[in-house]
Amino acid sequence: MLSDAVHVDVALRFTNCFMAMSGQQEETLECLAERTDALRRLCMSQMSDRAFAVYTEFFTQTQSMCYFLQSQIWHRETERTINRLSSFSRAAGAQLELVNNMQDTLLQQQHEQHQLQAELLLIGRLLV
């Protein structure tokens, strides 16, 4: 997220550019040269009503652009997270299926061992 100072700088640059391109201002706004907030505020307070209205519009637009870009980043990150979760979910499903197959095999082997023990017990009784 951009700081207010950066939003002000960007809006002032857009304002200078727009005013120069539209022929509404012979000289550029010197507020960009001011490095302290107090001097910048003083400079901006001396802007014409038209220049301040243009500046205000661009300031609002820079905030909207930032919001839009942050929203785009959030959506992209959310999509990546969902894709990773889907991959992990598929991998977990495959592992669960493998574990289930192993349990079935183990159960089958235990059943076979039980049958062999029963046969051995029967043979042992016949020998006695």
Give an account of the 3D structure:
- The protein has 128 residues and is an all-alpha fold.
- It has one domain.
- Helices cover 83% and strands 0% of the residues.
- It has helices at 4-21, 37-45, 49-127.
- Helix 1 packs across helix 3 (49-127).
- The longest helix has 79 residues, at 49-127.
- The protein starts with a helix and ends with a helix.
- The model has no long low-confidence stretch (mean pLDDT 89).
- InterPro entries: GEX1/Brambleberry.
Condensed summary:
The protein is an all-alpha fold and 128 residues long. The protein has three helices and no strands.
Counted by DSSP, the helix tally is 3
CA-based gyration radius: 37 Å
DSSP strand tally: 0
- What's the helical proportion of residues? over 70%
What's the SSE pattern? HHH
Largest sheet: none
Mean pLDDT: 89
Low-confidence stretches: none
Distance between the termini: 89 Å
Instruction: Please tell me the total number of domains.
Output: 1
Instruction: Report the portion of residues in β strands.
Output: under 5%
Overall geometry comes to rod-shaped
The chain-level structural class is mainly alpha
InterPro entries: GEX1/Brambleberry
